[in-house]
Design brief:
The chain has 356 residues and is of the alpha/beta class. It is built from 12 helices and 11 strands. The strands form 3 sheets. The chain has a 7-stranded mixed β-sheet with strand order 2-1-11-10-9-8-7. Strand 7 (224-227), helix 8 and strand 8 (257-263) form a beta-alpha-beta unit. Helix 2 packs across helix 4 (129-145), helix 5 crosses helix 7 (180-205) and helix 7 runs parallel beside helix 8 (237-254). The radius of gyration is 20 Å and the shape is globular.
């Protein structure tokens, strides 16, 4: 693997400065693909969704597949080797008893039995098959890499999104009108269980794991997560403030470093409200399929910057200069991108241009 343990010291140092607003440059995670792995490719094929592997495929075999993929990469700038056990967005629903259904290229969750919201309750189940599958994969990777590779947190999900796995979206939308107190009760139940699962996984990962990352691997030496509520694109700003924002703000207070996953134009109605959460450190803006590309939203990035928040961008490197020019500075941005190894010279030029 094209990475040494000593490089983690620099990653930690620069990450701490960036979160504190003291790094006078952006973080640029530049990964080059297509390097010579120096080892044979495993027979196990790669799946972007870890849940696609049958349960009889060993955790060690999955980790070996990931090890091969990482060996095909070169890590430049602020990048580092990381792997994400991807069991779908909101896998906490499956850990609390929902069905996990693998689709063609996605994962869905639905209830084993539909209940009225007044009859719902959530339990932290340490015997759940998905909870233990993820734990086994974490254990195998920690033993294999001994802290060289950063393990990302699995995508636990946003709490109303998790609830909607048990009350499919159209029913939960009606519940907001008909049973608002029950929705709030379940939101706070989900909140507590979320931190139970988050804590359980971190107690296993730390202190071997170099630090904290989520399904978007912004590195942090302190507890971090990228929070979300995809459900909220269907509700008004007033409903967002009533049903979503209080729990989000509470989660931000419990996490040292927090981001929000702003997914698609339908969520822009909630951006002003989100930016008033003092403890929210940053925003990841994803325009979404069919929308103009990242460099076509200067007003969104300016609003985030003017609120004193950090910005995460996942984009082709060709857009980055434009976004920086629109903002007037690259400070407070983390760019996550990858190119083929035959573009290493261009990648190095970009890194040098921004002092990385």
């Amino acid at each position: 693997m094209n990475f040494t343990a000593s490089r983690w010291d620099k990653i930690r140092e620069d990450s701490d400065k960036w979160w504190a607003g003291e790094l006078k440059r952006p973080l640029i995670q530049m990964r080059l693909n297509g390097a010579d792995p120096g080892r044979d490719e495993p027979a196990l094929p790669f799946h972007s969704f870890t849940s696609f592997y049958d349960l009889d495929v060993s955790a060690e075999a999955i980790v070996d597949r990931w090890d091969y993929n990482l060996s095909c990469c070169k890590f430049l700038g602020d990048s580092f080797p990381s792997v994400w056990p991807n069991f779908g967005a909101g896998v906490m629903a499956a850990m609390m008893g929902a069905n996990l259904l693998n689709g063609d290229d996605t994962v869905w969750f639905n209830p084993k039995e539909e209940k009225e919201i007044s009859d719902l309750s959530f339990e932290f189940d340490t015997n759940n098959v998905w909870f233990n599958r993820i734990k086994d994969i974490y254990k195998a990777g920690l033993e294999r890499w001994e802290g060289l590779v950063q393990f990302d947190m699995t995508d636990l999900g946003g709490n109303l999104d998790i609830l909607s796995s048990f009350r499919p979206s159209e029913k939960l939308l009606l519940d907001l009108y008909d049973f608002p107190d029950a929705v709030k009760r379940m939101t706070w139940e989900a909140h507590e269980k979320w931190f139970s699962y988050y804590g359980a996984f971190n107690s296993l990962l730390q202190p071997v794991n170099p630090g904290y990352t989520a399904w978007t691997p912004i590195f942090s030496t302190q507890p971090y997560y990228i929070l979300q509520c995809d459900f909220c694109y269907m509700i008004s700003p007033d409903m967002f403030d009533e049903f979503v924002k209080p729990e989000l703000a509470a989660a931000c207070k419990r996490l040292t470093n927090s981001f929000y996953h702003l997914d698609g134009p339908g969520q822009l109605a909630h951006l002003d409200s989100l930016l008033t959460i003092d403890e929210l450190k940053g925003v990841q803006w994803i325009p979404g399929a069919g929308s103009p590309l990242c460099d076509q939203w200067p007003e969104v990035y300016r609003k985030i910057r003017d609120a004193g928040k950090l910005i995460q961008i996942s984009a082709d490197v060709s857009y980055f200069d434009t976004i920086v020019e629109q903002l007037g500075s690259a400070e407070g941005i983390v760019l996550m991108t990858s190119v083929n190894i035959n573009q290493e010279a261009e990648a190095c030029e970009l890194l040098a241009r921004y002092g990385v």
